[in-house]
TrEMBL record:
EC number per UniProt: 2.5.1.61
Keywords, sorted A to Z: Porphyrin biosynthesis, Transferase
Lineage: Bacteria, Pseudomonadati, Pseudomonadota, Alphaproteobacteria, Hyphomicrobiales
A Pfam cross-reference name: Porphobil_deam
UniProt name for this protein: Porphobilinogen deaminase
Protein's organism: Jiella mangrovi
Length: 345
């Protein structure tokens, strides 16, 4: 892959007297390469949540490597998922929608690393790219934001709930078959505006996103992940980069979180085993207990919630991938061959 010039890295270095200067004389040597004029380009979507996540990555990298803010640029890339707002994701082509254009920028060497919500990432990445780090996981739970009532249980008969997530729709329908779920696409701000306009009596969002935008006060009910398990990867920011880009690899290694990486390995293996896309309601939640045991809760449902298969599996963290795969196989077997027919389309 073509690389831009020498491996130099812009750095507002400090000389011995603490003065800040930017010339080569002050450039520190970083992993044997001189720090000079090249910024680390962070690619991200442009939503408020995406920008909050990109800033968090930048802040962690600055702290881990003692770098100034302007050693980085945050480059906003618009994705088809941001532009197509009138159809559910499952109809327009699934998970790749929020990542395709950003991955193209990585492959073209227009950015150096991409910041994503892990739950928006397909299990198969384009050739040449890898997930090089998972950040420490935020709250994994879903929340209900209600207008007609504070909790799902208290909603009036036949209330309308806005959501674009098949998983949330299926689990809601399972709890309350009388509810009417309508498509709510768009970023968090768009969905909240639709709710305010009265287009629905409530919506469901991830606590993690609200926390990152300092909007946690909007939640009227926090849902128990045992009863309402999250999407695989929910609450975890990941960094995607080019395979073989040693500079980025070493840069992000310092902010990678091991427990999150292990949990996400299990959840994403579960998803991969089910060949999960946005067309399949799938939930998965992996945790590491105090004694170091990894446990995974995996669920699949029909979109109307009428049928659900779940499994729980435990093991050692080294078996994260295997635990996810076996859990996937277990629910597939329980569901039987006809489960995905008819609606998986
Ligand atoms: N598909 C949108 C999306 N992707 C990740 C999050 C939340 C943040 C996270 O899970 O890390 C959201 C919004 C939501 O579901 O409320």
């Amino acid at each position: 892959m073509a690389r831009r010039g020498p491996l130099r890295w812009w750095c507002a270095g400090r000389d011995e007297d603490g003065r800040t200067s930017q010339d080569d004389a002050c450039a520190r040597t970083y992993w044997g390469v001189s720090l000079s004029d090249t910024k680390i380009r962070i690619g991200t979507r442009g939503s408020q949540l995406a920008l909050a996540q990109a800033s968090e990555v930048r802040a962690r990298l600055m702290a881990a490597h003692d770098l100034p803010e302007d050693a980085f640029s945050i480059d906003v890339i618009s994705t088809s998922g941001d532009r197509i707002l009138d159809r559910p994701l499952s109809e327009v082509g699934g998970k790749g929608l929020f990542t395709k254009e950003i991955e193209a920028a990585l492959l073209d060497d227009r950015i150096d690393l991409a910041v994503h919500s892990s739950k928006d990432m397909a299990t198969g990445l384009p050739d040449g790219l890898e997930i090089s780090a998972f950040l420490p996981r935020e709250d994994v739970r879903d929340v209900f934001i209600g207008r007609a009532a504070k909790t799902i249980a208290e909603l009036p008969e036949g209330a309308t709930i806005g959501s674009a997530s098949l998983r949330r729709q299926a689990m809601l329908k399972r709890m309350r078959p009388d509810l009417d779920v309508i498509i709510f696409r768009g970023n968090v701000q768009t969905r909240l505006r639709k709710l305010e306009e009265g287009q629905a009596d409530g919506t469901l969002l991830a606590m993690a996103g609200l926390n990152r935008m300092d909007m946690q006060h909007l939640a009227t009910e926090i849902l128990d992940p045992e009863v309402f398990p999250p999407a695989p990867g929910q609450g975890a920011i990941c960094i995607e980069s080019r395979i073989g880009d040693e500079r980025v690899k070493r840069l992000v290694e310092a902010i990678s979180d091991r427990p999150t990486t292990i949990a996400l390995t299990a959840e994403r293996a579960f998803l991969a085993e089910l060949d999960g896309s946005c067309r399949t309601p799938i939930a998965a939640h992996a945790r590491i207990a105090g004694d170091g045991t990894l446990s995974l809760h995996g669920v699949i449902l029909t979109p109307d919630g009428s049928e659900m298969h779940e499994t729980r599996r435990e093991g050692v963290v080294e078996d994260a991938e295997l635990i996810g795969r076996l859990a996937g196989r277990t629910v597939l077997e329980a569901a039987g061959p006809g489960f995905f027919d008819g609606w998986a389309g």
